[in-house]
Design brief:
The protein starts with a helix and ends in a 12-residue tail after the last helix. It has one domain (39-247). Strands 1, 2, 3, 4, 5, 6, 7, 8 and 9 form a 9-stranded antiparallel beta sheet that branches. The radius of gyration is 21 Å and the shape is globular. The protein has helices at 3-23, 30-37, 43-56, 67-71, 77-100, 148-164, 200-211, 242-247; strands at 39-41, 58-61, 106-117, 124-139, 169-173, 181-186, 191-196, 221-224, 227-235. It is of the alpha+beta class. 29% of the residues are buried. The longest helix is centred in the middle third of the chain and has 24 residues, at 77-100.
């Protein structure tokens, strides 16, 4: 086989791969996209990813707003669509803000792993259900080693960003050696609420509950009739090639075993 034949084979493979991507029906929503392509972190996986950040400190922040929260009243389908488009622009913008400040970040969707039992057949089906809000876990580290300056800079950055993106608050967790609590920080820098963050799973669950403005407290496993719910976190897959990694500069990557 000569060089020309090899080149023709490579071109054919590339052409077929492009066609398969183009022919694939895109997921109908952001939530469906996350369910299809992102990695699922259970409680054990979340502890592995987040464990070291408890020691250095971090924040969890979002640029997403629901249309109802933005306007203070029920929205039409068109207004909801416009807000979703605005959220996508804000998502790209806040990534740039975090990178420009020297901080890495992990994009995340919170959600629940639900065991749904069919009342007729008794068959159980496990369903991963992310919520619609995107947030970012941002460790308090700008260089090779975290410093006290990084922690203060992160807190100030969080306050600036929730003002910029009209968020009520962000979650701030100091290093565990200094403080065992996590705090919701408001736009004026004051503390809105605090809670004992016993584990990464507890902390993330409280945050996403607040982000969705759902009332009440959640335990790690909830029962709702025939449904049992366990909080999980969705994170993007690791880059498949160097070009993709460069495009996602600033993002912290994780590979979940078995996914």
């Amino acid at each position: 086989m000569d060089i020309k034949q090899i080149k023709n084979i490579v071109k054919q493979v590339v052409r077929e791969n492009k066609q398969s991507v183009l022919l694939e029906t895109p997921p109908p929503s952001r939530q469906e996209y996350v369910k299809k392509y992102w990695q699922v972190l259970s409680e054990a996986g979340l502890s592995r990813v987040m464990g070291k950040y408890f020691d250095m400190g971090f924040m969890v922040i979002s640029a997403d707003r629901t249309c109802e929260a933005e306007k203070g009243m029920p929205c039409s389908d068109e207004e909801i669509k416009q807000q979703e488009q605005k959220n996508k622009k804000n998502e790209d913008a806040i990534k740039g803000d975090l990178s420009a400040a020297g901080f890495g970040y992990i994009p995340t969707f919170g959600g629940f792993k639900e065991t749904i039992v069919d009342p007729k057949t008794g068959k159980s089906t496990l369903v991963d259900s992310p919520s619609a809000e995107l947030s970012f876990i941002v460790p308090a580290q700008r260089g090779a080693k975290a410093s006290e300056d990084d922690l203060q800079a992160l807190k100030e950055l969080g306050t600036d960003l929730i003002q910029k993106y009209n968020q009520d608050s962000f979650l701030f967790h100091p290093p565990s050696s200094q403080d065992s609590k996590s705090y919701f920080i408001k736009q004026d820098g004051s503390i809105d609420a605090s809670f004992e963050s016993a584990s990464p799973n507890d902390m993330e669950q409280v945050y996403f509950t607040q982000l969705r403005k759902s009332p009440g407290r959640f335990s790690l496993t909830e029962s709702h009739g025939d449904q049992k719910r366990e909080f999980i976190l969705f994170i993007p897959p690791s880059p498949s090639h160097p070009q993709e990694a460069r495009k996602r500069r600033g993002e912290i990557f994780f590979k979940v075993k078995g996914q």
